[in-house]
Amino acid sequence: MSKKHPYIILIILLLALISRLIFVFTVEETLWDSGVYIGMGKYIYSGGEAGLFEHIRPLFVPFVLGGIWKLGFDPVLFGRLFEILLMLGIIWLTCQLANHWFNEKTGVIAAALLAFSPIFYYLSFHQYTEIPAVFFSLLALYLYTKNRPILTGITVALAFYSKFPAGIFIIVLGLMYFSNKQYKQSIKTGVTFGLCLLPYVIWNVIAYGNPFATLIAASNTMKLALGCNVLRAQPWWQYFYWLIFSETKIHLFSIIGLFSLAKQWKKKHILLATSIILPLLYFIQLPCRDYRYITLFLPFVIILTGLGLACTYDLITKKLKNKTKNKLFIVMLFVILFLTAYTSYLFFIKNNQTVNPAEKGYYEYAEQNNITGGIWIANPIIAVHTNAKLEKIYYPIYKAELSLSFYNYIAQNQQNIGAVFLDNCGGGMICPPNDAVCEQQTQRILSSLNDKFERVHDATHGRCWYRIWQ
């Protein structure tokens, strides 16, 4: 088994890569958050002359995408390739951690399961924060097992910069350090982590007068976001449902893995247990629950599932010869790969949307037409298609106060407005439930724009309309 192990992992990684490259050039849709991160990248590298900025967002992904754009490459395509590269790293790191906590058999099974996790597969084609955050979190744990405390601190900081909740792994590592009485190493990791975060804290103080301003603003915005709190509101137990009924029913074997873990429990397993429990508890208590959030603890659940499958396999093949065992193990791996790949494919096909002509013309209008003056948008995906500076109507939460503010701005600053992009399907101008004032103000905005500007684009697709005033 040990001699074949590197080749098996290589095959799994190769399958994961090839299966993604098949679709990487064909995905048409750019999602809301991807538009934000690409717009932020343009804003950062242009000194505020292009794109847009949202201060509640983490900065790592915008810096990467902005760098790609600054070098003259397409941040959409190369952003996907970057996510796929990190995804391969996640598969490898998960395998290595499973090897450390249990054995090679568990590691290989975990790698096979993770290679075609539906949510990880889908996110491989979108410029989101989850894959970078998980990659750096796993790398931090791996470096801890190699006794590299300074590099551990750096990678946890990068996980935080990728997605703020990933900073919880500094607590996970702290608990592990103190349980092992590794006080010197914990200080090295903690100080390194703090020094890496210092520039961000200083920026918060200078820009907003509070070292935690962006974290507080992000937390408050998440509590009010209509997408996950109202339109797609989910109960606290939804994460468990997603694990079994959207990821794979094979995760039922994680129950066997839990019993096996309890039976062979060692102090090193504290790292595994807390890596599941702390992120899960954090996300459960949030009012905003999204499928993407399971990614932060999913690799560790997958390791438990791998352990459960490995134990079941050992029990079934206990009396067989080693040669037969190895053949059956390969068969089991390919069955797992086939089942998970099929599930991922169905999930990808279901969620992968094409861009309709009305939407396409709306997004690309600014790039194809000369606009003089400020460009106001209700959908950040427009930032993908233009290098102009963009002003946000939707940010941070569209409600009565924000709609009134923009209505007043139109009345007082008509001469400064070059174009206004509004649509009713992106989510940027959806009023909170029972906010009648917001609905009234939205209608006043539309009437005001019709009176003061020329409607140069008015397209519909189904119930969705896309309008531009210039």
SSE blueprint:
Layout: H1 5-24, H2 32-45, H3 60-70, H4 75-101, H5 104-115, H6 118-123, H7 130-145, H8 149-162, H9 169-179, H10 183-208, H11 213-224, H12 226-231, H13 238-247, H14 253-263, H15 269-285, H16 298-316, H17 322-351, H18 357-368, E1 374-377, H19 382-385, E2 390-392, H20 400-412, E3 417-423, H21 436-452, E4 455-461, E5 464-469
Parallel strand pairs: 1-2, 1-3
Antiparallel strand pairs: 3-5, 4-5
Helix pairs in contact: 1-4, 1-5, 2-3, 3-4, 4-5, 4-7, 4-16, 5-16, 5-17, 7-8, 8-10, 9-10, 9-15, 14-16, 20-21
Structural class: mainly alpha
The main β sheet shows up as: 5 strands, mixed
The largest sheet has its strands arranged as 2-1-3-5-4
Poorly predicted regions are none
Distance between the termini: 67 Å
Total number of distinct structural domains: 2
Count of discrete alpha- or pi-helical segments spanning 4 or more residues:
21
